[in-house]
Amino acid sequence: MCIRDRLIPLNLTKRILKKAGAKSISRGAQIKLVKILEKELSIIAKQAVKNAEYLGRKRVKSEDIKQAFEAFRERGRD
Hints:
This protein has 78 residues and is an all-alpha fold. It is built from three helices and no strands. It starts with 9 loop residues before the first helix and ends with a helix.
């Protein structure tokens, strides 16, 4: 993954991991977390867009995101 292709900055993942209690974080761990988050966020975002389009809207609203996230979580439990 090229640095310019990332949507989530590595610094953000470092802060998240620090807040979770990590004392030290490797660059590889940050990059892996970015890849995972971007993949999962992309799935949620695409579903949210589908939800809005299904309801005849061009604008994605918070309820579309919420519904997409809930569907994503349900799929993860199977």
